[in-house]
Design goal:
The structure is a single chain. 17% of the residues lie in helices and 39% in strands. α1 links the parallel β1 and β2. It is elongated. By secondary structure, the protein is of the alpha+beta class. It has five helices and 17 strands.
Amino acid sequence: MKIGFTASKASLAQSARATLVARYGDVPLAEADYIVALGGDGFMLKTLRNSVALEIPIYGMNRGTIGFLMNAYHEDDLMTRLEEAQEEVIHPLSMQAMGRDGVLHQAMAINEVSLLREGPQAAKLKISIDGRMRMAELVCDGALVSTPAGSTAYNYSAHGPILPIGADVLALTAIAAFRPRRWRGALLPSNTNVRFDVINPDKRPVMAEADSVAFKDIDWVELHTEANVRHRILFDPGHGLEERLISEQFI
């Protein structure tokens, strides 16, 4: 069993990597049977993005601040834990964001794609679903589209629903909606194409983020689930994403 270890820049993660490499050996990620990522959720998302072409299962151990996607850190029995781990396959969101300078930006998001106001004025967004305009004007601090895997992150903080990991739906959630006052968002089929057009971007500039990869001063955003891309994440038995999503609703 060949393991490739990767770690965030935090001293705790770097120290753990040195200990584990000395004990289990280390190979380049492209040659590994398993990738072990040491850090928090942010580093896990970065590792998933950087290794997507490899399609190698990734097992995270928490050496950071937040670890929803991570397993508990233990130095012992790592080989056994990898062999017994449960695999979750996640399909990310693919985002295209057109800047007002004419530059087209592209990014993948495992958790969510979000649009956020850049200045003091509330954002005004037009929302289209599969080419059909569904909301002419949403006045808000922003809006986001979340996958089931990311539904307990920013989406949940914005009062969006927690989605079962196996659900073929996306959550469209407003952030501090002003008009329509009581609009709480929508649930959409996972194969939906979602488009946001920024209204009056001169006065109300908007930025777009795909899992914290940000692009400022955008004109429109389109996104959809990228069914051809597979992220393979490993969890200890009984602590997979489904269990974590259920547990999160009873805290």
